[in-house]
Every structure is written in structure tokens, then in C-alpha cells.
Design goal:
Layout (H helix, E strand, L loop, with lengths): L7 E2 L4 E5 L5 E6 L7 E8 L2 E7 L11 E7 L6 E5 L5 E4 L8 E8 L11 E3 L9 E8 L2 E7 L11 E7 L6 E6 L4 E4 L8 E9 L2 E2 L6 E3 L9 E8 L2 E7 L11 E7 L6 E6 L4 E4 L8 E8 L11 E3 L9 E3 L5 E3 L8
Antiparallel strand pairs: 1-2, 2-3, 4-5, 5-8, 6-7, 6-9, 9-10, 11-12, 12-15, 13-14, 13-16, 16-17, 16-18, 19-20, 20-23, 21-22, 21-24, 24-25, 26-27
Length: about 325
């Protein structure tokens, strides 16, 4: 039965309008709207933004509202919200990394349109910082290692970015690696301190900095230079110059090694940071071979070049008595007449 209110829509969608005498006159035919067009979804950190265009055909009656449907799986959407006549909606009731399906319908006085195109969206954000960054240094390198972020932001980590500086807090880009958890920096100088942090990157972008770590690459010293040996009666005097390179750590001492032609080289003595040693544990007439190494906090460096010497007793004719009986040690030379 058609209502006598003016205007009225019949069951078949015909619009009627009443006259003053109570008669109804048909004005036209109303249909359901066509679907909203061009539904699109953009995502961000904790949201899905939906937008669409009005239907091509409102069915002969103005659009009164748009209805949004949502699901965690395609084809199983349920009513989410009505947004009136707006052409957009921001869904913040989402979880990063989870995929959602949406469609929209339009409604007029007759009813609800068919569904729009379906869209799927996965809200994501950048990863949190890598954790447990560590630096281990050696001779000409710094080894970095870290653990992945606690939260990948809903999108897998695809790479890591390493930053380095010579001053804490002033790091600059150093390198990018794929989804691995280590990096070896060989562009370093022994003895210099370096500061590092690492970031993680996913499809949403680059995350925050890890904690900062520092490392100072070191090595053992190079060999002492210019080893010299001079001998006398019951002694061999050794002297040398320091290494050209202390390995980035100050030399703390030297080790003296000795051998003869019939014995193996053995450690003779350890001295502090001095450049000489007097060996008095020798036998006159025996030839001795010496080498020296330098030591720092990292360890012992390579051998110096060898030096040799043969201690000799002073010849007997080098000693003469004075008239008072005292011995003088020569040599003595006769003055020409």
C-alpha cells in the first residue's frame, strides 16, 4: 500500500506525490544507486585511509550515506561504519602487519547499492632499532654485530645501514648491508677510536638509531730497528731504536733473545721501555747472536734484524806496571825519537 505522505516511494521504486484532494500522482522511477567508484586504500603506522568517488548513478534519489565493510580475509567483510555523505574514512582500529579487506556501498532512499571494488591494505611502520650492537677490534679492523629489531613494524627488515664517526654523536653514513647481522669495517687506522650505530630498514622506511658503540683497532708493534751489538771483556752491549709503528698501543717493554751457533734462540731478558741492554752472562771467545722484539698491550711483535758480537779478554801485553806497582791498561805506543 502506498503511503499518502508526500512524496512517497512505491515498492517498485516509483515516486508518488500527493495532491490537495488526496490523489497521488507518479513522478518517476527510483532505483538503487550504482556502486561507489575507485575505492583506494593507503596505509601508515596504525591506520588505513580509504577514499572513493560517488556512484555514476544515484538511482534518481540523492545519496544519503556510505557504508564501509571490513574483514581480515577477502570476501568475508562485515559492516564497519556509516560515514554519511563523506567520501573518505580513516580506520585506526588496525594492527601493523595485518592485512585487511574493504568495500563500500552507497545508499539512497530506496536502499543500498551493490559493493564497490574490494581493496586490501596492510598498515606498516618503520622497524624499531637493532638491539645489542657490539664492536670487537683487531689489527686493521672493527667487527660489528647486532640482533634484529624487536618489532619489524609489520614489514620484514630488508637491509641495515651502518654509520661511523671519529667523535661520539657525529656519525655519518658508512655502508649498507642486506638482511645480515654483522659487518667488518676494514677502512680503519690502528690506534684511532671509532663510534658506530646501526639502523634497520623495511618497506616503510628507515628506523631509529641503535645504541652507540666505540672501538679502537690495535695490533702488535712492528720490529725494533737498528739493533747494534758491541762487545768487551765479559760483556756484550746491545742498543736499538724503537719500532716505526707501535700498533696503536704504546710499547711497554722489549724482549731480548740470544743464541750461539750450537744453541737455539731463547729468551734472555725482558726490559721496560728502554733501548739498551748489557749482557754479562757471556763467555769470552764465544760468538753470540741477538734479536729483540717490542711488546704492547696487544702482544709481542716480530723479531728485529739480528746482530752478533764476540766478547774477548784484553790481551796481556795491554797491561803494564807503573814504578809503584799499579797496572795500566793499554795499548801503549812508543814516541818517536
Amino acid at each position: 500500500m502506498i503511503s499518502s505522505s508526500s512524496p512517497a516511494i512505491g515498492p517498485d521504486g516509483t515516486v508518488y506525490i500527493g495532491s490537495g484532494s488526496g490523489a497521488l500522482f507518479a513522478l518517476g522511477h527510483v532505483t538503487l544507486p550504482s556502486p561507489p567508484r575507485n575505492l583506494q586504500a593507503t596505509t601508515g603506522d596504525g591506520y588505513v585511509n580509504l577514499s572513493w568517488e560517488p556512484p555514476e548513478d544515484d538511482g534518481g534519489s540523492p545519496i544519503t550515506e556510505y557504508r564501509i565493510y571490513k574483514s581480515n580475509s577477502s570476501g568475508d567483510e562485515a559492516f564497519l561504519v556509516s560515514v554519511g555523505k563523506k567520501l573518505y574514512y580513516n580506520d585506526t582500529n588496525v594492527t601493523n602487519g595485518r592485512t585487511y579487506s574493504y568495500f563500500v556501498t552507497a545508499a539512497n532512499r530506496l536502499g543500498e547499492s551493490p559493493a564497490s571494488n574490494e581493496v586490501r591494505a596492510t598498515p606498516i611502520t618503520v622497524p624499531t632499532a637493532p638491539v645489542n650492537l657490539q664492536a670487537i677490534s683487531g689489527d686493521g679492523y672493527v667487527n660489528l654485530s647486532w640482533d634484529p629489531p624487536e618489532d619489524d613494524g609489520g614489514s620484514p627488515v630488508i637491509k641495515y645501514v651502518i654509520y661511523r664517526g671519529n667523535i661520539s654523536g657525529y656519525e655519518a653514513y658508512l655502508a649498507t648491508v642486506s638482511n645480515v647481522l654483522c659487518y667488518t669495517d676494514t677502512s680503519v687506522i690502528n690506534g684511532e677510536t671509532y663510534y658506530y650505530y646501526v639502523t634497520a630498514v623495511n618497506d616503510a622506511g628507515e628506523g631509529p638509531n641503535s645504541t652507540e658503540v666505540s672501538a679502537t683497532p690495535l695490533s702488535v708493534p712492528s720490529a725494533p730497528r737498528n739493533l747494534r751489538a758491541t762487545s768487551g771483556d765479559g760483556y756484550v752491549n746491545l742498543s736499538w731504536d724503537p719500532p716505526e709503528n707501535d700498533g696503536g698501543s704504546p710499547v711497554t717493554g722489549y724482549r731480548i733473545y740470544r743464541r750461539t751457533s750450537s744453541t737455539n734462540e731463547t729468551l734472555l731478558a725482558v726490559v721496560e721501555d728502554v733501548y739498551y741492554y748489557n749482557d754479562t752472562t757471556v763467555v769470552n771467545g764465544q760468538k753470540y747472536y741477538y734479536s729483540v722484539t717490542a711488546v704492547n698491550d696487544v702482544g709481542e711483535g716480530p723479531f728485529s734484524t739480528k746482530a752478533s758480537a764476540t766478547p774477548e779478554a784484553m790481551p796481556s801485553d795491554m797491561s803494564q806496571k807503573t814504578p809503584g806497582g799499579a797496572h795500566l791498561r793499554g795499548p801503549f805506543f812508543r814516541c818517536p825519537c
